[in-house]
């Protein structure tokens, strides 16, 4: 009898794929898929703050004056230095910020200070007025004023101006419309006697003034105050530097035998002088006489 090895029975192959059933009592539920958390986005480091540029030092607006005579008044002192620009005024009282230092008896100590509205006026005052005679025999020295702030112990802070009080606005004095003063006033340009000697005097005068002032810059307008006894002429330049050059050259210059005064217009002075009835009659009479003389001269030429 032949021994035949018994072969294991072949396992039965499932005919179809069967998903395993889930029995909550037998096995645990499958784990949910892992949640993918994106890595945190790192913000770029903040740029370092730019250092603040240092503030430009303020330009000086005041001049210190020495060599003043004992009897000078604050008004004359201010008028003399107003040639170089608009003098600043107190915001509450609107008084000019020019001071003559005086002793207990009210006599001038010989020095004073002027505070301008524009810093450019400081250099102009030094150029024009340093070494000049404010009155005959009194030569003054003009330099930039320097202040040292000193706080006295126990001193109270200055009283603040109430907002209800209308403050004085010095910027309105700069000119009629421009931000910088372009108006120059010149005195002693003519006398009343020579002005009314010939009918075309003022026309000729305007032509001469414009021709001379055009050397400094463009002239926009000219005004002759015909009845002003001081012989006043106002010139309006296109630009402020031209007006400044005009003052530098014309102030103190001799014109027609008279020494001129040239300075910036302060925005307030009225140089217009109204003609009286007597002056009007005299002007008409002189005009008629001039016409008669012209007719007589023409007749003589024809002969």
TrEMBL record:
<dbReference type="InterPro" id="IPR034393">
    <property type="entry name" value="TatSF1-like"/>
</dbReference>
<dbReference type="InterPro" id="IPR034392">
    <property type="entry name" value="TatSF1-like_RRM1"/>
</dbReference>
<dbReference type="InterPro" id="IPR035979">
    <property type="entry name" value="RBD_domain_sf"/>
</dbReference>
<dbReference type="InterPro" id="IPR012677">
    <property type="entry name" value="Nucleotide-bd_a/b_plait_sf"/>
</dbReference>
<feature type="domain" description="RRM">
    <location>
        <begin position="61"/>
        <end position="147"/>
    </location>
</feature>
<keyword id="KW-0677">Repeat</keyword>
<feature type="compositionally biased region" description="Basic residues">
    <location>
        <begin position="52"/>
        <end position="61"/>
    </location>
</feature>
<dbReference type="GO" id="GO:0005684">
    <property type="term" value="C:U2-type spliceosomal complex"/>
</dbReference>
<comment type="similarity">
    <text>Belongs to the HTATSF1 family.</text>
</comment>
<feature type="compositionally biased region" description="Pro residues">
    <location>
        <begin position="27"/>
        <end position="48"/>
    </location>
</feature>
<dbReference type="GO" id="GO:0003723">
    <property type="term" value="F:RNA binding"/>
</dbReference>
<dbReference type="GO" id="GO:0000398">
    <property type="term" value="P:mRNA splicing, via spliceosome"/>
</dbReference>
<protein>
    <submittedName>
        <fullName>HIV Tat-specific factor</fullName>
    </submittedName>
</protein>
<dbReference type="InterPro" id="IPR000504">
    <property type="entry name" value="RRM_dom"/>
</dbReference>
<feature type="compositionally biased region" description="Acidic residues">
    <location>
        <begin position="15"/>
        <end position="26"/>
    </location>
</feature>
<feature type="region of interest" description="Disordered">
    <location>
        <begin position="1"/>
        <end position="63"/>
    </location>
</feature>
<dbReference type="Pfam" id="PF00076">
    <property type="entry name" value="RRM_1"/>
</dbReference>
<keyword id="KW-0508">mRNA splicing</keyword>
<dbReference type="GO" id="GO:0005686">
    <property type="term" value="C:U2 snRNP"/>
</dbReference>
<keyword id="KW-0694">RNA-binding</keyword>
<keyword id="KW-0507">mRNA processing</keyword>
């Amino acid at each position: 009898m032949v021994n035949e090895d018994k072969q294991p029975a072949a396992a039965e192959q499932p005919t179809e794929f069967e998903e395993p059933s889930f029995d909550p009592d037998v096995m645990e539920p499958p784990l949910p898929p892992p949640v993918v958390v994106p890595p945190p986005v790192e913000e770029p480091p903040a740029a370092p703050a730019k250092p603040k540029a240092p503030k430009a030092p303020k330009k000086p607006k005041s001049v210190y004056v020495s060599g003043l005579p004992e009897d000078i008044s604050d008004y004359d002192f201010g008028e003399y230095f107003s040639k170089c620009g608009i003098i600043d005024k107190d915001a509450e009282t609107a008084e000019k910020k020019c001071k003559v230092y005086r002793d207990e008896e009210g006599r001038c100590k010989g020095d004073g200070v002027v505070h301008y509205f524009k810093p450019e006026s400081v250099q102009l005052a030094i150029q024009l007025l340093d070494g000049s005679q404010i009155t005959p025999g009194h030569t003054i020295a003009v330099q930039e004023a320097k202040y040292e702030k000193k706080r006295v112990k126990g001193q109270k802070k200055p009283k603040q101006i109430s907002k209800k009080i209308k403050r004085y606005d010095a910027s309105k004095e700069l000119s009629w419309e421009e931000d910088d003063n372009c108006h120059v006033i010149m005195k002693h340009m003519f006398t009343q006697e020579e002005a009314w000697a010939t009918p075309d005097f003022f026309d000729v005068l305007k032509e001469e003034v414009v021709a001379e002032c055009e050397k400094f810059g463009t002239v926009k307008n000219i005004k002759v105050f015909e009845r002003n006894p001081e012989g006043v002429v106002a010139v309006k330049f296109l630009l402020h530097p031209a007006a400044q050059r005009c003052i530098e050259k014309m102030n103190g210059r001799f014109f027609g035998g008279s020494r001129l005064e040239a300075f910036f217009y302060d925005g307030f002075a009225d140089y217009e002088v109204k003609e009286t009835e007597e002056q009007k009659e005299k002007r008409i009479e002189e005009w008629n006489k001039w016409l008669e003389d012209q007719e007589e001269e023409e007749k003589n030429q024809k002969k």
